[in-house]
Every structure is written in structure tokens, then in C-alpha cells.
Specification:
By secondary structure, the protein is an alpha/beta fold. It is built from ten helices and 14 strands. Helix 2 packs parallel to helix 10.
Amino acid sequence: MGYSDIRLVALDLDGTLLNKDKQIHEHDVKIIKEIMSRGVMVTLASARPLCSMLPYAQQLGIEIPLISLSGSYVSDMQETEILVERPINLAVFKEMAMAFEEKDYYIKAYSKNRLFVQEDDEVTQRYSKVFKVPYTAVGKKQLRDLNISLFRLAIFDEPSRIEEARETLGNWSNYFKVIRDTDRGLEIVERTVSKGTALKSLCQNFNIPLEQVMAIGNEGSDLAMIQSAGLGIAMGNACEELKEHAVYVTKENTQCGVGFAIQQYILNK
């Protein structure tokens, strides 16, 4: 099978499709719309909640479900067709939240379309403005009392404290999975969640073999998606782990790497 047989393209957002100003370059918009006009489906796959992804999906004219919250929620833009919905175990989340709140970690807890934090600080305000995610400050040490479905948890602190947090998470390894581990942050989802499993569910819905899928990303959280797709591509600015497992490495996100990859492997330009 040649890569001209690609029927679905899955694109990460931050660091992949978006430039440093959180915008899609006009060249990439043009190329993406060209393959869509030829019948190739395009979706977005991001750690962002759905509400934060909508402006980009609307700009591109995407109509199929989007992979949000690192793969724990897959839905169309109107949320009338939900393919994947895998929230974190709430009872265990309360235990974990209590442990980290007592040690004063900065914690972000995501429902489908809202962020929950302890306090209304400058960091949260800036994040909400840039990523267009509404938030609720519940009060110091009050995340543990939330009684709603949560899909993604992020914990931030100094490197030494993050290492301690990673070790602490071992107490709940049967319930959670760390899908991104940096020296200053951890990203946690339900243990079966990944962009890769979400992509498989989307392909099953449209009866598309994974061999006919192109996926492009830049971070470790994109690894499962890259490995699941028949044509897994890493951005030029991607982490080394992703580059090692990708079939190809394209240009950087500041150089329209997404458009370049599509032109080279689908449009044959």
C-alpha cells in the first residue's frame, strides 16, 4: 500500500500544528483543506479539553469527532456523538488529590470542558486566557471534595518534588497512568487511556484500517498515536523518543512541518 491510500490524518495541536503564537499557519490550513476536499478525513488529538480545540477545528472545517483530554474523551464538536468517555475513578482521585494538596502541589483537574484548581492565581489566569479554557477555583485543599467526572490531572512543581510525586503515584498505579513525565510536571489519565487507543476507536467508527492513518505529533504523549498509525510522523522539534519511533521526521512546527509532511506523503508534491 502506498501512502497515497491514507484516509485519515490525526494531528496534535501544541508544538505540532500550532506555531509559537498558538496559530495555524495559512499554508498548513490550505494543505489540510486540500486533502479534505479529496476525501481524506482529518481530526485533532490534544491534551486540551474539547472547548479549547473547537476554534481550530472550525477554522479547518473538521466535521468528524476530535480526540481531546489526551484520549480520554472523543466527541464531535456538538457533543452529540461520543465515541470515548473514560473518566478517572473519582473515589481514588479524591485520595490522590488529598495527598498532593496536603503537600501544596499545583494541581489542574479537568472535566470535559472546564478546569478546576485550588486558587485563582496568575498562572491559572494566564493559562485560561491563552488556551481559552474556563476555570473554577474551588478553594485551598478543596479539589478532594469534587463530585464530578474528571478526565485528566496535571501536577506541577520543582524537579525534585515532581520526582517525589511520581513515586507517590505508584500507590494508585492500578487506576492511573502517567502519560507525560517531565522534570517539572506529570500528566495523569485513567489507566487504559492514550491517544493511540482513542485513535483506534475513531478508526473503528469509520471502518478505517490503522494502516491507512497518518498521525503527527511532537511529545511523548503522542507516542501511542504515532505507533498505532500506519504512517507515524514526528515533528522536527519533537522529543527524541518520538523521533526514534516515527516512520519519518518532518520539519519543525515553525516551518509548517505538518503541511510539508502531507505534501510529501499524501499529495506527492
